Amino acid sequence: MKIATFNINGIKARLPRLIEWLEETRPAVACLQEIKSQDDGFPVADFEAIGYTAIWHGQKAFNGVAILADKRAGYEIAEVRRGLGIDGLKDGEGEQARYLEADVNGVRIACLYLPNGNPHPGPKFDYKLAWMERLRERMAEIWAEEVPAVVLGDFNVIPEDDDVWSVKAMADDALMQPESRAAYARFLNDGWTDALRTHNPRGGVWTYWDYQAGAWQRDHGFRIDHILLSPECADRLESAGVDKAHRGREKASDHAPVWVRLR
């Protein structure tokens, strides 16, 4: 069972690249972030045309998450939850579209787009930390259900110094602050397994390259897209990787897809 995450950075702008990736790699489950689309604008028909079914949680111009399943291969989605119950930063905004959870053929899939937190310090960084704590609470609830579970998406956290091309360049960024890293480390201390780190213990694997300053051409990237596995799934982990070449294609997202394969 191949399960992937991909921050698509605007589903309408990247739809040809997304369809291309789905058809070439054919994950059983694909979790998307930053779809930047209202619910009624989500291109569900395009996915159905290539054999994928979908659920999504959209928001105008910002955020937004979705889960796709390969129906041709027999995978079905049953939605469990949308949102973590955290209001946005603006008064009356309501909850931002950042979390979607479903069961796919007996595996719990939690797709997330964690707040960036910049500028740091400030209310956006405080919101990021509060969101991470609420996520941890939800992960504990999933854990208590004793279901095979995968929590994945754009965490907007660089966990270790060897997860970034230059520690100095990112030192003041919210993605690398001690508080962000400590919150991420608590997920691992709770017993969740960082799949990509497990297969790349020395680091040096990037999932994001900025559009600015020739970051892609110079390989100035970092790792912020993560796949965390419950013990039931960690025991079944066969492989994990990054589809890096897709970042170099025309009109690509600034993220590359990340995936795991479970027995």
Automatic annotation (TrEMBL):
Endonuclease/exonuclease/phosphatase domain mapped to chain residues: 4-255
Entries under Pfam families matching the protein: Exo_endo_phos
Presence of the UniProt keyword Hydrolase in the record: yes
Cofactor(s) the protein needs: Mg(2+)
Enzyme class: hydrolase
UniProt KW Metal-binding keyword: yes
EC number(s) recorded for this UniProt protein: 3.1.11.2
PROSITE patterns per the UniProt record, alphabetical: AP_NUCLEASE_F1_4
Keyword terms: Hydrolase, Magnesium, Metal-binding
Family annotation (Gene3D superfamilies): Endonuclease/exonuclease/phosphatase
Record-stated family: Belongs to the DNA repair enzymes AP/ExoA family.
UniProt name for this protein: Exodeoxyribonuclease III
